[in-house]
């Protein structure tokens, strides 16, 4: 069910993109984040109309205009010493000025004298910022409401639900008429919900909840690798969590642990949520492309069994049964079956990969499996060994400690924390020694061919391909544009 929901949601979103692409077939700018205008969403438009109609009408206030600001534009030169400027006169064409402007000049003394300059008599709007210790009752009392009115207002169910839980920093907008009588109260509950309270003709308060779903758009971020995915991604406008997501999407296909691949191109299509024309938050990465000089890897988001996974355009999972690196850290010593001992000059193979990291850095299970060893083991120090299937085992050594709930026999899933970096056993500094074995033989976890996760089933694949088509087309068009630019 969850998977179906995911597909449906993606489908709706993709539909927007299709329309967008056909409407704006312009070149995409390179190396910048650009918010794409979304196609009009009929559903949203209908909802917006509903909201508009539920919003309180503009109060009809009589503004007490200061007479001195009103001037007759035509006669403004009266009384000023005449200076002959024929050139300017000839430039002014009065033929379009409405006749009314001549026959009905704005009165110079419109305001009644007793109210002139009496700003207290004007309707006002006050934005109240809730401070520590403030309550709704306190705020309303402070702004002149009597107990009877406050009771009238606070016994409304919506008020009880959405106005009594005020926290410091919250804002309430209060509207008053010229007699400083409360005519309205507005509170933005969250990005999508606003509470409106208005005084009706019968003097009672009406409460209404306005719901305004955020407008979802697809944002394009493109950048070239110059120093690292983190640095360049952040400079291009990606949030930290989106950068981590990118690392995790491409962890099996791109070795970010090796030296930076300068010049490689990254393209990200992600959701962004718009309110009143402004981006208010980021959403999921829907598609991403990593382009090296010789290969291009693309990834499309798909929800399967309630879990989001990224697949390539053919429906093959980018995810493998094992993580390349069970820790986010730098490799300090690689797998080397012929390593010479620096002092003894004898062959001392290094049967794993070492990652240098501060003590306490968390270590993840490389794949789903079961803990078959947890304890201290000679030069390994504190270590965990996981059996993944009949053929695969992984080992994590020199740990400082284990997670509290983990024990021998525990089932673990890929990415789950199974220990913390330490310096136990034979280790010159805090590091993780990681081993990957197939049928009992050690392999380089950086290079070993990893078993893939199961690809999409036929029926799911059809839906997946339909859903990703607009994203695939957009990525292809962006790629073509940047290649054209590169050739110039
Ligand atoms: Zn080692």
Structural class: alpha+beta
Query: What ranges have pLDDT less than 50 throughout 5 or more consecutive residues?
Result: 1-117
Task: Give the beta-strand count.
Answer: 21
Q: What would you call the shape?
A: elongated
Largest sheet: 10 strands, antiparallel
**Whole-number radius of gyration?**
33 Å
Give the rounded overall mean pLDDT.
Answer: 79
Describe the 3D structure.
With 488 residues, the protein is an alpha+beta fold. It has three domains: 2-40 and 215-311, Nuclear Transport Factor 2, Chain: A (Roll); 48-52 and 119-211, Nuclear Transport Factor 2, Chain: A, CATH 3.10.450; 330-443, Glucose Permease (Domain IIA) (Distorted Sandwich). It is built from ten helices and 21 strands. The strands form three sheets. Strands 12, 13, 14, 15, 16, 17, 18, 19, 20 and 21 form a ten-stranded antiparallel β-sheet that branches. A six-stranded antiparallel β-sheet has the order 1-7-8-9-10-11, sandwiched between helices. Strands 2-3-4-5-6 form a five-stranded antiparallel β-sheet. Residues 333, 350, 352, 354, 433 line the site of zinc ion (ZN).
């Amino acid at each position: 069910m969850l998977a179906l929901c995911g597909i449906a949601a993606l489908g709706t979103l993709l539909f927007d993109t299709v329309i967008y692409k056909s409407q704006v077939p312009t070149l995409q700018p390179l190396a910048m984040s650009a918010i794409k205008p979304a196609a009009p969403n009929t559903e949203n438009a209908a909802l917006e109309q509903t909201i508009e109609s539920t919003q309180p009408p503009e109060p009809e206030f009589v503004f007490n205009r200061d007479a001195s600001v009103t001037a007759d534009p035509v006669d403004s030169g009266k009384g000023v010493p005449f200076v002959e400027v024929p050139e300017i006169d000839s430039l002014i064409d009065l033929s379009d000025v409405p006749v009314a402007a001549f026959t009905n000049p704005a009165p110079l003394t419109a305001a009644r004298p007793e109210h002139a300059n009496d700003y207290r008599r004007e309707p006002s709007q006050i934005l109240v910022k809730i401070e520590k210790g403030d309550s709704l009752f306190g705020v309303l009392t402070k702004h002149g409401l009597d107990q009877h009115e406050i009771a009238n207002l606070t016994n409304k169910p919506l008020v009880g639900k959405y106005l009594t839980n005020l926290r410091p920093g919250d804002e309430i907008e209060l509207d008053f008429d010229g007699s400083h009588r409360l005519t309205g109260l507005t509170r933005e509950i969250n990005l999508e919900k606003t509470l409106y309270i208005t005084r009706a003709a019968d003097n009672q308060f009406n409460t209404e909840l306005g719901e305004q779903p955020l407008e979802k758009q697809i944002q394009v971020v493109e950048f070239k690798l110059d120093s690292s995915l983190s640095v360049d991604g952040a400079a291009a406008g990606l949030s930290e969590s989106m950068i981590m997501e990118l690392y995790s999407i491409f962890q099996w296909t791109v070795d970010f642990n090796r030296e930076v691949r300068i010049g490689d191109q990254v393209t990200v299509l992600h959701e962004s949520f718009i309110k009143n024309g402004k981006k208010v938050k980021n959403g999921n990465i829907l598609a991403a492309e990593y382009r090296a000089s010789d290969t291009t890897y693309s990834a499309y988001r798909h929800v399967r069994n309630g879990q989001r996974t990224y697949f390539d355009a053919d429906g093959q999972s980018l995810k493998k049964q094992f993580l390349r690196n069970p820790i986010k850290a730098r490799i300090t010593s690689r797998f080397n079956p012929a390593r010479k001992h620096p002092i003894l000059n004898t062959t001392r193979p290094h049967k794993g990969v070492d990652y240098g990291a501060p003590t306490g850095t968390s270590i993840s299970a490389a794949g789903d499996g079961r803990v078959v060893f947890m304890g201290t083991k000679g030069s390994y120090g504190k270590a965990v060994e996981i059996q993944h299937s009949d053929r695969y085992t992984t080992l994590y050594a020199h740990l400082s400690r284990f997670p509290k709930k983990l024990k021998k026999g525990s089932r673990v899933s890929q990415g789950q924390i199974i220990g913390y970096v330490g310096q136990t056993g034979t280790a010159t500094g805090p590091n993780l020694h990681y081993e990957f074995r197939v049928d009992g033989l050690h392999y380089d976890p950086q290079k070993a061919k990893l078993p893939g996760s199961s690809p999409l089933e036929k029926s799911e694949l059809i839906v997946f391909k339909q859903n990703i088509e607009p994203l695939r087309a957009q990525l292809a068009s962006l790629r073509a544009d940047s290649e054209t630019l590169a050739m110039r």
